[in-house]
Design brief:
Layout (H helix, E strand, L loop, with lengths): L5 H7 L5 E5 L3 H4 L29 E5 L4 H12 L3 E4 L3 H5 L11
């Protein structure tokens, strides 16, 4: 499967068969820790920090800060039978577009 772009992910938020998986540390997910290169804290709305029960048939899009941890997560999820894709731009790209939503806490 191909990588996910910012435009595709932004347009697909809220789809019932889509799981957005944030594979950052819990403190990053909560917005308590922000990388110096990111203009704002938070996460992509609806993202799950750990989703072991996504279920068969669900598409999983993984992201992290810059796409490397999520690339590993995609390999593991794909090996477990999930339809998994990596959002390479991850929070580093998403956080730069102030028109896109973000969640904290």
């Amino acid at each position: 499967m191909s990588d996910v772009t910012l435009a595709e992910l932004a347009s697909r938020l809220g789809e019932p068969e889509l799981v957005v998986l944030d594979v950052r540390r819990p403190d990053e997910f909560a917005g308590n820790v922000v990388a110096p290169c990111d203009p704002r804290p938070g996460r992509i709305p609806g993202a799950r920090n750990v989703d072991v029960g996504a279920g068969p048939g669900a598409e999983v899009i993984a992201y992290c800060h810059s796409g490397s941890r999520s690339a590993l997560a995609v390999q593991v999820l794909a090996a477990a039978g999930y339809a998994a894709r990596n959002y390479v731009g991850s929070w580093h790209e998403w956080s730069r577009d102030g028109s896109l939503p973000a969640e904290l806490g």
